[in-house]
Amino acid sequence: MRKLSILVLTFGLGACSSGPKYKIDDSVLASVPVADKAGVLSAQNEQNQAQAEVTKAKADLESAERDLDIAENEYKAAKLNLDTAKLNQKAADESGDVNRKNSAARDVHVADMGVQAADAKVDWLEKKVKWQKYTRDAAEAHTQSSAAKYELEKAKLAAAKNIKPSDDFNVMNFESESLDKQKRYSDSEMEADRLKPDVDGLERKYTALSQQYNDLKNAH
After folding, report:
1. Ranges of each domain in the chain
2. DSSP string, 180-195
């Protein structure tokens, strides 16, 4: 049986909030024709898309957390309803009234199914919140990856145009950082994808139990 307590979920996969180590000021490439900036503009567009992913992931996480709070309260109510039904059943058994005993037993059965459904809902939403946190982390990792890619594209363009933004300018530094950020993004995505089947499975379980509970309640 579920313990009525606040679930605390902690994660260590959050993306680093700092930007790329290696950067090139946009003004350095100001004189380069727009037609030659296709790679830079594409990377910039990916940055915008990644930021939109973060905004959506955060909103989805907040929604899932609210749903979980509601589900936990629903479980408490279902548990209280079951406790009440059991007390009524005890009184009915002591009364010796067969009809009353049968009715009370049905009430307990229905209430117990309500607890099972509510319990399954909390299990599902707990896992969903966890998945949404990993999804948010992956989206934030994407912003870091796309930012590093943007800087890499600028570095490649600068090198192609024989522009040297600094004395120690080296495209390899940009490539190395971009590859590292891309790997972190890919790893974060894999973690989120790994959890999704569990979320879907728990949702199906809850849906089935909820349907059984509603059928019993409506037939009662």
Report:
1. 35-74+122-219
2. HHHHHHHHHHHHHHHH
